[in-house]
Design a protein that fits this description.
- It contains nine helices and eight strands.
- Strands 3, 4, 5, 6, 7 and 8 form a six-stranded mixed sheet that branches.
- The longest helix has 17 residues.
- The radius of gyration is 25 Å and the shape is elongated.
């Protein structure tokens, strides 16, 4: 019997998964016919899928067969660091919004997702989550004046926050005064739907809070900063220090 290449095995496995997803259940004979494999090969493939976490179920008796449980999840994803942070943050935010529908399993989902990451990534994500603060909903007055910042500004804020790089900003105060500052984005705070940076401000040499829609221009300086003691910020923003 000719040896099957790795690429052919991968293709066969993908075809098998596609078949299992396409019908409620399959008889083994039908699966063998579709794939052109022996009973032994089919059983081996199914066993390996189970070992990889796919909920393959076998039902005996009339009307039974092989099926993929309706509790199967997404295939293994290859996410970069920022994608992981954004996904876990999105789930945490939805939890805090306490929607009466379609949110009862969010905490369990977030915990399962978190446990699926490698230990080193879990540690990094956990450390970043401690710097993301979720407060109350913004007041009606704040919301009425709020306008989402430009995509480029949002992306540079996120980059400086995640990489701990100093950020040069052009900031417009409530009274209209515009100042140039270099800040260290130690924390970000959400008072839905308004985001704030809790930062160390080099201009004032003290902690300050900046509403992101008042940041009119940004430039990542590139200089890395070390996280300052939480106490440097907690005295001013203590009510918000409940990680997402």
């Amino acid at each position: 019997m000719p040896k099957v290449s790795f690429a052919e095995r991968v293709e066969r496995r993908n075809r098998l998964l596609g078949l299992l997803r396409s019908e409620d259940h399959w008889k083994t004979a039908d699966l063998r016919e579709q794939l052109g494999v022996s009973q032994r090969t089919l059983m081996r493939e199914l066993a390996e899928l189970r070992e990889d976490g796919y909920p393959i179920e076998s039902e005996r008796g009339r009307g039974g067969g092989i099926r993929l449980s309706d509790r199967w999840g997404i295939d293994r994803l290859h996410l970069n660091h920022q994608e992981v942070v954004e996904l876990t943050l999105a789930l945490a935010i939805m939890e805090r919004l306490k929607s009466p529908i379609l949110t009862s399993n969010l905490k369990a989902i977030r915990q399962k997702l978190f446990q699926a990451f490698p230990q080193s990534q879990r540690r990094k994500v956990s450390n970043i989550r401690k710097r993301i603060l979720i407060g109350d909903n913004a007041s009606a007055n704040v919301i009425s004046l709020y306008a989402a910042p430009a995509t480029r500004i949002s992306e540079e804020i996120a980059e400086s926050f995640l990489r701990q790089q100093s950020l040069e900003i052009e900031y417009q105060a409530e009274g209209g005064e515009v100042t140039q500052r270099v800040v260290e984005a130690h924390y970000i705070l959400l008072n839905w739907p308004v985001w704030y940076i809790i930062a160390w401000d080099h201009l004032r040499m003290a902690s300050r809070v900046f509403r992101i829609d008042r940041i009119k221009n940004t430039r990542v300086v590139g200089e890395l900063f070390r996280l300052r003691p939480q106490q440097s910020f907690k005295n001013m923003f203590a009510p918000y220090f409940q990680p997402a």
